[in-house]
Amino acid sequence: MSDGSVQQRQSQPAVPLLEEQRVGEILAAVPERRHWRYRPRRVGMVWRSRTFRIAAVFTVLALCGLAILALVRDQTGTEGFLVGLGLAVLPVPLLMAAFRWLDRVEPAPWRNLLFSFAWGAFAAALVAIIANSFATRWIATATADPSGADTLGATVIAPVIEESAKAVAVLLIFLFRRREFNGIVDGVVVAGFTASGFAFTENILYLGTAFGEDQQIGTSGVVSVTAATFFVRAVMSPFAHPLFTVLTGIGFGLAAVSARHRRIRRIALPLLGLVLAMGMHALWNGSASFGPYGFYAVYGVFMVPVFGLVTWLAIWSRQRELRTLSAELPAYAAAGWLTPAEPLALSSMRARGMARDAARLRHVAPAWGSPYGPGYAQAHPPGFGPGQVPPGRGPSARFRARADAQAKAHGRAAARAVAEYESFATSLASLRRRARRGAAGPDFAERELELLHHLWQRRDVAAPALTYAAQATGRLRPHHLPTAPYAYPFPQHAQYGGYGYNPYLTPHRPPPQQ
C-alpha cells in the first residue's frame, strides 16, 4: 500500500466497531423478531400506521390505473387497446431483467421496484396525459396555431411534465425507503423501473392509435403503421424513457452518498439530474423537426453514446459496491464477526453464486439419508438420485416423493439463508462506507447492531459455504481444497452459540441436549 493511501485512510473519520468480546452484551439488547426495525415503530397517528400507508398507496395507484385504462381505451378503442397491450408488454421483461441484473450485489426489495413500476405506468402516465393535453390545448387557443402548439408541447411541455411525474417515484423511495437507497445503482434501478412502467403505458397508447390508423386505411403486415411504431419504440429505443429518467436517478444516488452536512449538494444533484433528463427528453422528441434524417442523427450521435456512458457508469458503480465489501468487511472479520475468507467471497459475484449452490447441495444431501428413515437411504443406491429408484426396492412412491420434497425444501432454505446473509453483509459494508463519508445517520450503531444480528443468525449455514466458495474460486488459497461442496464443519463460537437449533436449515445436526 502506498504512503498516499495510508495517509488518506488515516485522515478518514473513525467509525466505531462492535467488538466480538462484547457479543453477549450486544446481542442481548436486540429486540424480538417482530420489532426488527431500524427505528422504533411510531404510533399515535393514523397516517403513521404501516397498514394505513400501504392501503393508501394501493388505493391511489389502483384509482390511477382505472383512470388511465379508461382514457387509453377511449382514445384507442377496445380492439386497439388489446393490440397495443399485447405488443407493449413484450419489451417489459427485457427491461426489468436488465435492471434487476444490474442490482444483483445488493438487490432492492421487490416492493420498491413494483411500486416504482406501478407509479410510472399509472400515476405518472395519468398526470402526463392530462397535463400534456391541457397545456397543448391552452397553447393552441392562445396562439391560434395548432401545429405549432403540438410541436411546442412535444419538445418543451411533455419533457418537463413527464420527467417531473416520473421523478416523484424516485423521490418517494429516496425519502421513505432511505435505508434501501444507498447509491448510484439504487437510483438507476428505481428510475429504470419507473420509466419502464411509463413507457409501457405510453406504448399501449401509441401502438393502439397506430392500429386504429391501419384499420382506417386498410394496411397490415410489415408495411403497416403499427409495425413501424413497434419497431421504433420497442426495438430501436426500448431504453429511451429509462435512459432519460436514469439521469434523475443518478442525481439522487449521488445525493445518497453525500455527507449529511452538505445540504446544498444533496438538493442540487437531484435537480441537476432532473434538468438533464428533461433536456435529453426534449432533444429526443424534437429530433423529427431537424429534417428527414434528424431522428437518425440524434439516435446515432447522441442517444447511443449516452446510453453506453450511463451503462458503463452503472456497471462501474456495481463493481465499486463489490470493492466496498472487500475494503470494509475485514474490520468485522478482525473483530470476530466474520471468518477471514468471507470478505473475499462476498466481493465476488461468482463466489456468491457458488456459495448458494454449495449450501443447497450440502443441506439436501443429508436429507436423503437416515433422517427420513432407514428404508429411504436404501431406496437411493449409488447411481440413483431422487425419483430414480430401482423397481421393487425401497419404500412407497408417495413416501419417496414426500422425502424428496422435504430434502429439496431444506436445500432451498439453506440457499435462501446464504442469499440473505450476502444481502445483509452488503448492507453492512455500505453502511460503514457511508459512515466514513459522513453520510450515515445518527442511528448508525443501532443499524449496525441489527445487521450483525441478522448475520449471526445465519452464520452456521452461510460461513462454511462462503469459505468454500472463496477457496474454490481461488480467492483464498488453502493447502488443500476440501471436497465439494465443503467437507469441514464450522465450529461453534466460544462465547455465543448462535440462536439455537434450527431443524429447517440444519437437518443433519441433532438438537442440543438440554
Main beta sheet: strand number and arrangement? none
Mean pLDDT: 78
Give the strand tally.
Answer: 0
Helix content: 55-70%
**What is the gyration radius calculated from CA atoms?**
28 Å
How many helical stretches?
A: 17
Overview of the molecule:
With 514 residues, the chain is mainly alpha-helical. The protein has helices at residues 3-11, 23-28, 50-88, 91-102, 110-143, 146-176, 184-217, 225-236, 240-256, 263-285, 294-334, 342-346, 349-364, 374-378, 397-436, 444-457, 459-472. α3 crosses α5 (110-143), α7 runs antiparallel to α8 and α7 (184-217) packs antiparallel against α9. The longest helix has 41 residues, at 294-334. Mean pLDDT is 78; it is low at 1-13, 38-45, 367-389, 479-484 and 487-514.
